[in-house]
Structure formats: C-alpha cells, structure tokens
Specification:
With 148 residues, this protein is mainly α. The chain has seven helices and no strands.
Amino acid sequence: MTLHARAVVLLLTVGVATAQTTTTSASKDNSVYAELAKAPTKAAARRNPLDTDPDAVAAGGKLFALHCAECHGDMALGGKKGPSLRAAEVQQSTPGALFWLLSNGVVRRGMPVWSKLPEPQRWQLVSFIKSLTPAAQPNANAEKAPHP
C-alpha cells in the first residue's frame, strides 16, 4: 500500500471513529430533563404572554392538579411516573422551553402531548411551574447527624 493510500485509510478511520463518538456522546444523555435542552431556539425564546396576569399562577395550579399531579405529585416533587418540576433543570428553563415541552410531550418517557389544551391554559401551566420554589440542593458541606 502506498503512503498516500495509507493516509487516506487513516483519515477515513479517524473520521468514522470521531463521528461514532460524537453520536454516542449526544445520545447518552439519559437525564429525564434532557428534553428541555432540545427545544428549538425560537421556541425557547418565546415569552409567556401571561407573565403579568395575576390570575395565571392560580389557574395553572388548578390545571396542574387536574392534568399533571397524577404523574408529577401533588407538590410537583416528582412521582411514580414523572420527575420533579422543582428541579433546577426545570426552574432554570425558559418559559418558552417549558411551553414547547408541554406542547410536544416526551411520549417515549410517558409525558403526554398537551397541544390540544388551549394555548392560554398551557401558558397558565408554565406560570404555575415557574412559580414553584426550587428543590433544595443537598449541601455537601453539611455535617451528618451522629448515629446513636
């Protein structure tokens, strides 16, 4: 084999290995919150039109109790089917990303598509979710209580 042919084979091998590594790394994010990062830029940039509506949070709370609490728990701390909505990944997401996720669901993880819910109601849910107190982060420096 000539030097040129070896170089071509080497470049092809490196290219295929790099492509496989990149694809594998991207698909390995199994976090239940990974879908939030998949919201298209335009969708994630959407602002909540009910941001200043004083009744939106309460209305969203009622919708949450009706449609979401079964999976995410009454206090949105997570349940048998759905993750906590108080997690930093959710609370730090943009209203647009949350709206996009509600509208499109994550069917393979059991999150229904809520696009049939009228758009104002989906924004009320976003208002409620964003109003939740974030989950407390475990303090790595906290001393553990002594065992008796």
